[in-house]
Design a protein that fits this description.
heterodimer; A: about 210 residues; mainly alpha; B: Rossmann fold; five-stranded parallel beta sheet
Chain lengths: ~210, ~200
């Protein structure tokens, strides 16, 4: 049952499967592409600031899929039908979170390679960016899911979710981008810890939120 | 199924002291004006909303059909239904599709279907679920005469197999042994309504 749900959710969200789901990745690469045009091609400046830009692009890209993450399936009655079949809201949200992360985390990590080339990041920096994204994107997915579930019943939910995600994602950004400035992999550990905590509570928070909307 | 049930919507009491028990092989038709609380009653019985007072429960699996088919608009009908057939481990999905005249529509994305076709798709999902208790919210709306006859036939068969069905509808239903329940009988007296009509 859980496997079936995951497969359906993945089909909905996976990039290039339809419905503009590839947008976060395209957006992410577009930011990396535009940045050198804006600050100039000086390799020194680019490689010094590029890592931070990758992080900002990743954080903003995480906002894009939020409007279709939960609200759509509430409208369709999908969650109601699953509830009647004995699936708990927490399980639905856990599956949804996994699908959401799989559809934007790994693609962003892959897209970090061309982004790093565009921003002229050196080897050690790229290494830290990749590790940081691997540790940080699950946390972004968890925050995104909670916000999407909480704002699902609001008319301006999509616009609001962007505003809400930014402050909540700040710790991940601080530690993730901080690791780059100090070339220190220990900060990645903090990012991973934050992500882990968020990943653990998000299904319960989001499940309670969609139960309340019903 | 329901005992001494009262439901609120917003801060308005819709009905109270509603007691209804449906045994195996019984069907009941709920009537009531728009806004009387038919949908609220059905959602409460399904366990999707909490009652204000009293108890509501269904024994066994519950099948719900309302205005939302629960099918992905972007997917072709066949694939969208296959998801639910898979979840419910439906027997003979092809037979269900044929019965509801959906076989030719299997390739059409759900968002291009008409209201009636979507309703038939919802019925297909319901049949695949093989639930014991059916909660049908306006099952006839949007359907042509032939399909309306089919719904009556399906409910009759379901009841004959020992299932129960609770149907909220504005239209008359030709189903043998159908009980009637008018929500108007359970509306609280005027003075307890807080807002003017």
């Amino acid at each position: 049952m859980i496997w079936r749900l995951l497969r359906r959710d993945l089909a909905l969200f996976f990039p290039f499967a339809g419905g503009g789901a590839a947008l976060p990745v395209v957006f992410f690469v577009a930011v990396a592409m535009l940045y050198p045009f804006a600050v100039g091609p000086d390799a020194n400046t680019l490689s010094r600031t590029g890592g931070g830009v990758v992080w900002i692009a990743a954080l903003l890209a995480a906002i894009l899929p939020l409007d279709r993450l939960v609200a759509r399936d509430i409208e369709l009655g999908h969650f109601d039908q699953l509830r009647l079949r004995g699936v708990s809201e927490e399980a639905m949200m856990a599956v949804r979170m996994a699908a959401h992360w799989l559809s934007f985390g790994p693609p962003l990590i892959l897209a970090a390679f061309p982004a790093a080339a565009l921003l002229q990041l050196d080897g050690p920096t790229l290494h830290l960016v990749l590790l940081g994204l691997l540790a940080g994107t699950p946390g972004l997915a968890a925050i995104g899911l909670m916000i999407a579930a909480l704002t699902a019943s609001l008319r301006a939910g999509a616009a609001l979710s962007g505003l809400l995600l930014i402050p909540l994602a700040l710790p991940i950004l601080i530690f993730g981008a901080g690791a780059l400035a100090r070339q220190d992999a220990a900060s990645i550990g903090f990012v991973a810890a934050i992500s882990l905590g968020l990943f653990a509570i998000a299904p319960f928070a989001a499940g309670a939120a969609i139960r309340a909307v019903r | 199924m329901a005992r001494d049930l009262a439901c609120m919507r917003g801060d308005r009491l819709l009905f109270r002291r509603l007691t209804l028990t449906l045994g195996a092989g019984e069907a009941c038709h709920i009537t009531g004006a728009n806004g009387a609380g038919k949908t609220t009653l059905i959602r409460t019985l399904a366990g999707l909303s909490l009652p204000y007072a009293g108890e509501a429960q269904c024994t066994g699996a519950v099948g719900l059909l309302d205005e939302r088919a629960g099918l992905d608009p972007e997917q072709p009908l066949g694939r969208a239904l296959d998801f639910w057939f898979g979840v419910d481990r439906a027997v003979e999905p092809e037979e269900i599709m044929r019965r509801l005249r959906l076989t030719d529509l299997a390739e059409v994305p759900v968002r291009y279907l008409s209201t009636g076709q979507r309703k038939r798709a919802g019925l297909a999902r319901l049949l695949g679920q093989a639930a014991n208790a059916w909660l049908l919210d306006e099952p006839l709306s949007g359907l042509d005469t032939a399909s309306q006859g089919l719904v009556e036939e399906l409910v009759s068969e379901h009841v004959a197999r020992g299932g129960t069905a609770l149907i909220a509808s504005h239209q008359a239903l030709r189903i043998e042994g159908l009980r009637m329940l008018a929500l108007e009988d359970f509306v609280p007296p005027r003075e307890s309504l807080e807002q003017p009509a």
